[in-house]
Amino acid sequence: MSTHRQTPIEIEKQEFRKTGYRLIDTISDLFETMHERPVTRGESPSEILDLLSDKPLPESGSEPSGIVEGAARLLIEHSLFNGHPKFMGYVTSSPTPIGALADLLAAAVNANAGANILSPVATAIEKQAIGWLAEFLGLPHGWEGIFVSGGNMANFTGFLAARTAKSGEGLKENGLPGADNEMTIYCPEATHTWIEKAATLFGHGTNAIRWIAVDAHNRMNTGILEKTIRDDLKTGKKPFIVIGNAGDVSTGAVDDLSAIAKICTTHDLWFHIDGAYGIPAAAVPEMRDLFAGITEADSIAVDPHKWLYAPLEAGCTLVKDPQYLVNTFSSHPDYYNFGNDEEQSVNFYEFGMQNSRGFRALKVWMALRQAGRSGYRKMIGEDIALSRYLFHLAEKHPELEAVTHNLSITTFRYVPSGLSLEDEAREDYLNTLNEELLNELQQAGEVFLSNAVVKGKYCLRSCIVNFRTSEKDIDEIMEIVVREGRKVEKHLV
Ligand SMILES: *Cc1c(COP(=O)(O)O)cnc(C)c1O
User: CA 441 → CA 183, 379, 396, 449, distances in Å?
Assistant: First the structure.
């Protein structure tokens, strides 16, 4: 047998360089020309399947250069680009170019960031990135945390730490208490669907969730929160967690975090902030007051793949006291030789749900270094200003109605001039019209918006977490919306 084993998966150096450099050329062309491309071609799933043709698993392999080029062409010609300057749907950011390079590097080194011994540099970088995130948000020294795949996982991680902290002894061994001592969960009506998944997956059931009413601005009514907790205590329930939104997913509303913190202190409850989308805005000095109270939280979910522009996936859980993560997730099987007594060492498998873990921190760490605190403040501040600009344009336009603006989310709708309907008939008609309009816009690919239902109104929703969007894009988007709105209106009539 020769010293160099021949395998069908190795790529010889010259070939790797040639193929890799060509791919980098293709990607940089994509970044440069993205604004000229459609956001999406709106192709149907069957059209996309046809592109792959119905081939069986290949029996033998083929040349890597052709595979890489073919895959790049396929993806570039037929993808939806959330890096396009006119993409502002859901909460999905444009990806940082440095993050793309970071993911390539992370994959090449392939650090397993589950244990320090397997990832000495990656673990240190993850710790530093977590520290920087906490610092960016203005949290005091001592907060720690872990990178996870996204907001859902980040919220789950905080939720499980809360349960450990507030359940008392025996949860690990005995599971959840019976119905008489049910552990109850408090969150505003505007909370993201993750909480239903958490209640279902972790054995509480959705009946354990107390959906607290929100005010006219989509913020949790803390008077009702307090009363609901007291009523539950009277009947023997065990309240354990209150969730506050720092940027609710529909309209970007930030709850009164200070008021929630006080209630949590009074009743010894865990205060978790879902900041998956909005909490990076706390780093912008003009916005800071809105987030008063964040330092009083016990855990915070933040999604670097949203407003820190990291390529998917990157979520993060920050906790005031990391011991609750360890108490929740740690175990010490005899097949691990990961001694944790060395100074400063962290084994991240003990902080969260994953065991083997990729190096998600690298793309966040590199981008924070590239733009710095001031660069991030500038980008986030500009996203907010653009969103406000969009709101003002909608306010001024005779055929548009501006509905809400918070952080970088604006909701608005198309209202044709001379509409003679009234009351319910009018609202029904406008809901149908705007829903059809959104479908048209999403298919056509000039701009990508999503929707929100605000007090019964079906609205178009723009969420700008996009460092490529400019004022010119906003002007053009408003023209497109009105132009298409008129068309849909004609079609409906
Ligand atoms: C996006 C979002 C989530 C879920 O995050 P994923 O990264 O999609 O899992 C949870 N909460 C809020 C407020 C969000 O905006």
Answer: 44, 26, 22, 8
